[in-house]
Specification:
By secondary structure, this protein is of the alpha+beta class. It has two helices and six strands; from the N terminus they run E-E-E-E-H-H-E-E. The strands form two sheets. The protein has a three-stranded antiparallel sheet with strand order 2-1-6, with no helix packed on it. A three-stranded antiparallel sheet has the order 4-3-5. It is elongated and about 45 Å long. The two termini are 19 Å apart. The mean pLDDT is 93.
Length: 85
Amino acid sequence: MAKKRYLTATLPDGYVKTIGPTSTAFTHYWRIVALLANGKSEVFWGHTKSLAEAKRKKSALAEAAAQRGWKSHVFEIAELIETQP
């Protein structure tokens, strides 16, 4: 049986996200913060098994922004580090 662990990412703005317990070998956390036309924001996030996989998420952003009518958006990636619960 695979070891269950907790993984934590700290984004540049200080936001901390912890996932787990998980036995999956995730390495990176990604987040999109989208500013909507009405001034509100939406947040989308996920985790991936490699930095390259996380970077590929960015390729669909222009299309998503156009479809959803976002005024602007920020895409961020942070490394996941194993932490204690």
